[in-house]
Amino acid sequence: MTVMTKLYYRFVYWRRRLGRAVRPAPGPRRPAPGRGQRLLAVKRSAYRFRPLYVFAVIVAIVLAVSYLMAAGGAGRGPLPW
């Protein structure tokens, strides 16, 4: 399996996780205790948006590598591999 194929499948995996994360979550089965409820909400939202952060990092890495490859080989023709 090539590196690009692995990167593609990782990209698809995180995109699916992102899709699941932004859908409305089902309500809790029992209410959380009053103390620490805000902290629980912050932890839940941070966990819920983790796929978004990972997806953004993967896209940023791909864009940076693409930029570096284009800037490094500008005007040299096709790549040797």
Automatic annotation (TrEMBL):
Organism annotation: Streptomyces albidoflavus
Highest classification ranks of the organism: Bacteria, Bacillati, Actinomycetota, Actinomycetes, Kitasatosporales
Bilayer-spanning residue ranges: 52-74
Superkingdom per UniProt: Bacteria
Keywords: Membrane, Transmembrane, Transmembrane helix
Name used for this protein in its record: Integral membrane protein
